[in-house]
Structure formats: structure tokens, C-alpha cells
Amino acid sequence: MPDMPPNPHHDALLRLDLADAAATEAFGASLAPVLAHPAATGLVIWLSGDLGAGKTTTTRGLLRALGHTGSVKSPTYTLLEPYVVSRMSVYHFDFYRFNAPDEFLEAGLEEYFADGGICLVEWADKALPYVPQPDIDIHLSVAGTGRLAQIQALTERGRTCLSARQT
């Protein structure tokens, strides 16, 4: 089979080994410039991975790096935790408890994706096809005693914003 030319619209995954919870939180903090980028208005980021993989820990690091000083908890029971940090609205969703995708519409959550805020979404697959597709996909997995983060920009806006990420 001949080699296929690279697809400029499908970026390679960035893979990061995260030794522990502190490294996972630091990874989240490294994403703060992504949200602070002028193109980030309306950005949708999916956070996927098994229970305990570090999705909320990543979000905590991100929000703290943006200046949030309060608690950051998983929205597993509330579906949504809203934050206003650095003059931006950040919405942290968790659809783990959905029994059917229609619960997304029944809860009226589509309005949050239309107001220009930044949406961080855990368990997005449980709200398909209603939850908007991501600009950036972050997959976290358990790797030994640490975690593995895989990040991929899936839109031009995602690529532009992700280029601002601190290493």
C-alpha cells in the first residue's frame, strides 16, 4: 500500500506522561494559555477517560492557573459547574449519569454552548449527538501509577488555541 500524504486537518496526537495527581494538575495549568487565547471564545474541549483518570484534576489545575481560588469539584451530580475567571465564562460539564442523550436537551444545556463561554465536557459521548463536537480532545488514561494525556486539536480554532499551550 502506498504511503498516504499527511492530512493537514488531522493533527497528530500530543502524548504526555503524568507521574501523579500533581503532574496532572500541572498539565491542566499548562492549558490556561489555550483558554486565554483571543480565539478561545466558544471553545469546546472534551475530556475523556475512565473514572479516576484525572479529568477533574486537569480542570482544577486549569481553573486555578486562570485565577480561580475556590473549590473545583466534579459536576457528576449537578451536570454543570459554572466559573467566571479572568473575565471569561468557563462551564464544566459531566454527563456520566445520563441514561439517554435526550437528557442534554431536557436539561436545556445547549444554551451554554451558544453563549461564547468555554465548555469543558466530561463523558460527552453520553450526550451525542446533541453536545457539540470538540475543538480540542483530551483523553486521559491510567498508566501504571500515573496518567497518560493525549491531546488533539480537531478544528482550526482548536489548533490556533492549542498553539498557545505552555509546555
UniProtKB/TrEMBL annotation:
Cytoplasm keyword on record: yes
SUPFAM superfamilies xref list: P-loop containing nucleoside triphosphate hydrolases (SSF52540)
InterPro entries: P-loop_NTPase, T6A_TsaE
Subcellular location per the Swiss-Prot or TrEMBL entry: Cytoplasm
Highest taxon of source: Bacteria
NCBIfam families: T6A_YjeE
Protein name in the entry: tRNA threonylcarbamoyladenosine biosynthesis protein TsaE
Protein species of origin: Viridibacterium curvum
